[in-house]
Structures are given as structure tokens and as C-alpha cells.
Specification:
Blueprint: E1 2-18, E2 24-43, E3 49-52, H1 65-74, E4 83-88, H2 99-114, H3 121-128, E5 144-148, E6 152-155, E7 163-168, H4 175-181, H5 190-198, H6 212-218, H7 221-231, E8 234-239, E9 246-250, H8 253-263, E10 269-274
Parallel strand pairs: 3-4
Antiparallel strand pairs: 1-2, 2-4, 2-5, 5-6, 7-9, 7-10, 8-9
Helix pairs in contact: 1-2
Length: 282
């Protein structure tokens, strides 16, 4: 079975408070983009999981979220749970696009079919909450507002088919480090952005990411990329998640294409893409 494992961006992200369980309460807007890893899954007689990937720095052991998803599901399966998972990485690692979480969710969804477990989306999400805060979103298929740890979802206006440029120069940012240093928001701003989006507006003054200050101290290029985006007519440019990926929303595909052509050789990862409603294959 071959699957497209789509990435996401955080259209905005607000860190509100520290939780008693050690995590943080956030308020964010999660958006699928047409950038994906390619995942191939086949059953084996090995009774275990083999993870194959040529990307440097990609873990292939029990620290990989794919392994954790397989491990969480196999207890519900009476047969031989042996599988081989091959990942062709397109998304950068540890970059704020949820690549690892997406890989995990799509493998869990595939195993749900292969093993005929017949679990609902909600059941898979419940199982995945203990694997990673981003994982439950990747069982969804549209723009959603997320609160709490990041998996209390709320419907909002769906955003599709708007041109987006995504850039990452390979700098890795530790999410736990950023959370340990981030300044908590003193006012909740997300409602203003959602009201603006409901009016069909894309106005940069309503977009924000609480983590940018800390992450840009680790990777100063984040601010350089944001400036490049605005210099090339982006309507909004912002860091996604804890970074270091930066996205730019453009008013037209011609503007986005122009920015892509001028920046594609300047940075390591440059994706000329768009906002989508995600559909899994398989």
C-alpha cells in the first residue's frame, strides 16, 4: 500500500499557559498543504516493524513515531503484526510541518485497513494522543482550530486553493526547548484572526506565532526568510509551529511562482504549493 503523508502549517499559534501534565495549552489553526512524504507499507512474516528511509537523521528505531503508532495498534491485532514501512522524505525533519506525526497517522490508518480493525477516526485519534500532540490532526482532512494540547478541534471556515510558498533552510529546532523558553500570551488573539478569515480577508496584522522569538534566536535565518517573502509581495509570512519552516501566503499564483523562482536556489527546501483539503489514498 502506498500513501501520501501530507504536511501541515500553523496559520497562527498562541501559547497560553503551562498545564499540570507538563504540556502547554495552545490555540492554533492547522492547515494541510500539498507537500507530502511518500510512504509504502507491506506486511511481512517478521513479527516486528522495519522502517526504511535514506534521509539523514531519520530515526528507524522505537523513537520514531511510526514505530510508536505500530506498537500502539498491534495490541489490538491477533495476527502477525510484521510490516515493512518505507518512507521517501520530502518534508524536512524537525521543522514544524508535522512530518513525523503525519507519517505516524497515515501508517496507523493503513494498518487499520490492512489488519481489518475497523476502528473509527475518533478511536485512532484517542490511541494516538499519547504518541504526540500533533498526531490526532492528521486523521482529519481540513482546516481546524485546535486548543488544549492541540487536539481539541473546532470547525471553522475551510481554506483551500490559496497559493503558499514554504521555505526551510535545514535548521532544526527542538520543540521542547522552544516551549521551555516561550513567553506565554497575555491576551487571546485567535478570535480576531478567525473573524477576519470569515470575512474572506488575509491580513498580516491578525496572524502571529508566539514561538517565533525563541526559534529565531536558534535559527536567525527564520527572520531572513520572512523578510524575503514580504519583499516578494507575500500577504502574510510566518513561521509554522516551533519552526524552522516559514510559509508565505500570496495573493496570486503568479506572485507565488515568481517568489519561488527567485528563492528556490537560495534555500535548501522551497515548496511552491497551496492549501488543500487532505485526502488519503490506499
Amino acid at each position: 500500500m502506498k500513501i501520501k503523508s501530507y504536511g501541515k502549517i500553523n496559520l497562527s499559534l498562541e501559547v497560553l499557559s503551562k498545564r499540570d501534565d507538563g504540556f502547554h495549552n495552545i490555540d492554533t489553526i492547522m492547515q494541510f498543504v500539498d507537500v507530502y512524504d511518500e510512504v509504502e507499507i507491506e506486511s511481512t512474516n517478521s513479527n516486528t516493524i522495519e522502517i526504511v528511509c535514506d534521509e539523514e537523521g531519520f530515526p528507524k528505531d522505537e523513537t520514531n513515531l511510526i514505530y510508536k503508532g505500530w506498537d500502539a495498534l498491534k495490541v489490538f491485532y491477533d495476527g502477525n503484526p510484521g510490516v515493512r514501512v518505507k518512507v521517501l522524505k520530502n518534508m524536512p525533519i524537525a521543522a514544524g510541518m508535522g512530518g513525523g506525526s503525519s507519517n505516524c497517522a497515515c501508517v496507523m490508518e493503513a494498518l487499520n485497513k490492512i489488519w481489518k480493525l475497523s476502528f473509527s477516526k475518533e478511536k485512532l485519534q484517542e490511541i494516538s494522543k499519547n504518541i504526540g500532540s500533533d498526531v490526532p490532526y492528521f486523521f482529519e482532512n481540513k482546516t481546524l482550530r485546535a486548543k488544549g494540547r492541540g487536539f481539541d478541534f473546532y470547525d471553522m471556515i475551510e481554506i483551500e486553493d490559496i497559493p503558499i510558498l514554504i521555505i526551510n533552510n535545514g535548521c532544526k529546532v527542538s520543540t521542547p526547548y522552544v516551549y521551555s523558553k516561550v513567553e506565554l500570551s497575555k491576551e487571546e488573539k485567535m478570535d480576531k484572526l478567525i473573524d477576519s478569515l470569515n470575512r474572506g480577508e488575509i491580513k498580516k496584522e491578525f496572524f502571529f506565532n508566539s514561538m517565533t522569538k525563541v526559534s529565531s534566536e536558534v535559527c536567525p535565518e527564520i527572520l531572513d526568510i520572512i523578510k524575503d517573502m514580504y519583499d516578494l509581495n507575500a500577504k502574510v509570512s510566518l513561521m509554522s509551529g516551533s519552526g524552522s519552516t516559514v510559509f508565505g501566503i500570496f495573493g496570486s499564483y503568479s506572485d507565488c511562482n515568481n517568489a519561488y523562482n527567485l528563492l528556490k536556489d537560495k534555500y535548501r527546501y522551497v515548496f511552491n504549493t497551496k492549501a488543500i483539503r487532505r485526502e488519503y489514498e490506499g
